[in-house]
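Recall that a protein's primary structure is simply its ordered list of amino acids. Everything else, from secondary elements to tertiary packing, is in principle encoded there. The following example makes that idea concrete.
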Amino acid sequence: MEHIEQSYDKNIDLYIVSMKSARKRGKCFINLSNNEHLLIEKDLVYEFQLQKGHQLSREVFDKLMFREALIEAKKKGLSYATYALRSTQQVKKKLSVYGYNTAIIQEVISFLHEFEYLSDELFTISFIKAKIERKYYGIQRLKRELESKGIHSSIIDNCLSSAYPEETALEIARKSAEKKLRSISFREDKKKRIQLQNHLFRQGFPIEVIKQVLNEYC
């Protein structure tokens, strides 16, 4: 659901008409004098010392709405980042879909980094290992896909140097070739060689590795 910010008409004095606990755990339901309704964290009621008849200035209203939005955004960001390893850019995009503004998104990202719920390094290492083991990716394809997820080039290079030593490229390319050949075994040799070459190129292997694999299998 998209996050919608409450509005405030600066020409109208806002008062709290009534307050009560909401069914949603930890929330308080507040009716305002302009017939709008707020659903906010009970902790914010105590923090802002809110009570029936209390007047809300524009400054207090804006701070209250920002703090409420930030709490909700942190919950969503934490849930998304801990369900599976995510990149910083993925979390930013997810929060943007919910409608949060840049200031709130950056606060959430800082929070997740500070408490180590979000790490581009851990995400990158995990991504590399998974794609090597399941998809037999070459280095260039890994770089392209990680860049598309917003990972900085220095992080990519550092993680690749430790998780994907260059000397393993040939072994991984062979596994990729063997898997591909099982699906094109019915092709004539010339077409089989072309298809295998194109496949290894798409997988991101260097040309010298591709040539060696082609000579071995075709």
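Residues 1-5 have pLDDT under 50 and may be disordered. The first strand starts at residue 14 and ends at 21.
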